[in-house]
């Protein structure tokens, strides 16, 4: 590590950022960190991801410039909807991806070299770490789990994944700076533990409600499926509860309101952490990003957890201890039979306590800037 630290990096740093597109949580987390890095030092960013460019423009803001490179930076788990995945399809995709010999990967390596990037920052893409090692530049990993750890339970029924696990473990173990964001799943002795990472807020809750035409006295429930849109079965009782407003992600290109249900496009003009902060309860699939933003804002969470995804037990345990949180089944979520439970849990809100919490985005940025300088 000392050879990296002794290098003369010049006044303007350059970071190559590799972001997993397995949901939006990895992207929102790294965007929160990037914004904090920019506050601390002059830095340019080369972003490599399968997440769309608009996602980074929306989350990094117009005041932060970056170069975007669309690339398959990760496989993760091949999804068959918000709550299901295919291990067989995942293994087939990993076998091809981990050859690391595609034209776009060679192009990425050339870009990193041409832009004289001082380091690679990954969440949780193994590709970025591999290329850093190949180019002899330092690598930084921000994670709350790694894919080798996620895949381990599948190895008994799918022994062909064992060599993949070993290969990925070697890559992840090679990083020069490991930052583990709470709640992390597998503590590493060389990892630095930090608080949960979430994005900063932009506007006050009453302004969010005003823009959405939601009265102050109405219950506002934000439903989430983790970045993968799914039409829910709207219960007739929900429609009749006019003192409740339901916000649901959809494939609509614009915001659409039907009665007391507001359909939000994936590419929404509303800053998602502001929606979380303005809501009485967040309801739905729990991933890292949803949990971290409920924790940061003190927003109650009615969560459903994927039983076949290893991260879930860690998220659930943290939510039970550190959030106002209750669990619901996926069936209850999809059929929207949780409304009375949401009304009850909203009365236990600890809004306002977010000002007392140290957010991991600042801690991570401090560690990264110190490391590359």
Describe the structure.
There is one protein chain. With 373 residues, the protein is α/β, with parallel strands linked by helices. The chain has 2 domains: 2-195 and 359-372, Rossmann fold (3-Layer(aba) Sandwich), CATH 3.40.50.2000; 205-356, Rossmann fold. It has 16 helices and 16 strands. It has a 7-stranded parallel sheet with strand order 3-2-1-6-7-8-9. Helix 3 links the parallel strand 2 and strand 3 (67-70). Helix 2 (25-40) crosses helix 3, helix 2 crosses helix 16 (360-372) and helix 9 (205-211) crosses helix 11 (272-278). The longest helix has 16 residues, at 25-40. The protein is globular. The N and C termini lie close together (12 Å).
Descriptive keywords:
373 residues; alpha/beta; Rossmann fold; 2 domains; 7-stranded mixed sheet
| CATH superfamily label of the largest domain | Glycogen Phosphorylase B
Count of alpha and pi helical runs: 16
Number of strands: 16
SS-derived structural category: alpha/beta
The span between the termini is: 12 Å
Q: What is the second-level CATH architecture of the largest domain? A: 3-Layer(aba) Sandwich
Sequence-ordered SSE layout with sheet pairings:
Blueprint (H helix, E strand, L loop, with lengths): L1 H4 L7 E7 L5 H16 L2 E7 L3 H8 L6 E4 L7 E2 L5 E2 H11 L5 H12 L4 E5 L2 H10 L3 E5 L3 H5 L10 H12 L3 E5 L9 E4 L10 H7 L7 E6 L11 H5 L3 E7 L5 E3 L2 E5 L6 H7 L2 E5 L2 H10 L3 E4 L7 H11 L2 E3 L2 H5 L4 H8 L13 H13 L1
Helix pairs in contact: 2-3, 2-16, 9-11
């Amino acid at each position: 590590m000392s050879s990296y630290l002794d290098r003369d990096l010049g006044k303007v740093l350059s970071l190559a950022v590799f972001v997993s597109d397995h949901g939006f949580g990895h992207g929102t987390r790294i965007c929160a960190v990037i914004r904090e890095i920019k506050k601390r030092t002059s830095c340019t960013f080369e972003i490599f991801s399968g997440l769309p460019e608009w996602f980074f423009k929306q989350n990094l803001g117009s005041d932060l410039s970056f170069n975007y490179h669309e690339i398959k930076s990760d496989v993760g788990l091949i999804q068959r909807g918000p709550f299901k995945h295919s291990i067989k399809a995942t293994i087939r995709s990993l076998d091809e991806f981990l050859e690391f010999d595609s034209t776009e990967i060679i192009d990425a390596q050339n870009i990193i070299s041409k832009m004289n990037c001082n380091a690679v920052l990954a969440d949780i893409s193994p590709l970025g770490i591999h290329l850093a090692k190949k180019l002899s530049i330092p690598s930084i990993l921000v994670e709350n789990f790694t894919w080798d750890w996620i895949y381990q339970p599948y190895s008994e029924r799918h022994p062909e994944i064992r060599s993949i696990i070993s290969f990925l473990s070697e890559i992840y173990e090679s990083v020069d700076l490991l930052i583990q964001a709470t709640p992390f799943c597998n503590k590493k002795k060389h990892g630095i533990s930090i608080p949960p990472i979430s994005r900063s807020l932009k506007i006050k809750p009453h302004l969010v409600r005003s823009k959405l035409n939601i009265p102050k006295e109405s219950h506002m429930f934000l439903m989430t499926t983790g970045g993968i849109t799914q039409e829910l079965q709207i219960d007739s009782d929900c429609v009749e509860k006019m003192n409740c407003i339901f916000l649901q992600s959809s494939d609509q290109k614009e915001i659409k309101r039907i009665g007391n249900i507001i359909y939000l496009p994936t590419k929404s003009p509303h800053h998602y952490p502001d929606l979380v902060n303005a809501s009485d309860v967040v309801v739905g699939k729990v991933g890292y990003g949803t949990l971290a933003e409920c924790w940061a804002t003190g927003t109650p969470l009615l969560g459903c957890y994927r039983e076949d995804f290893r991260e879930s037990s860690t998220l659930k345990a943290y939510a039970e201890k550190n959030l106002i949180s209750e669990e619901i089944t996926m069936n209850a979520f999809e059929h929207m039979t949780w409304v009375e439970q949401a009304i009850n849990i909203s009365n236990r809100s600890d809004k306002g306590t977010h000002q007392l919490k140290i957010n991991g985005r600042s801690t991570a940025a401090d560690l990264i800037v110190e490391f590359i300088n």
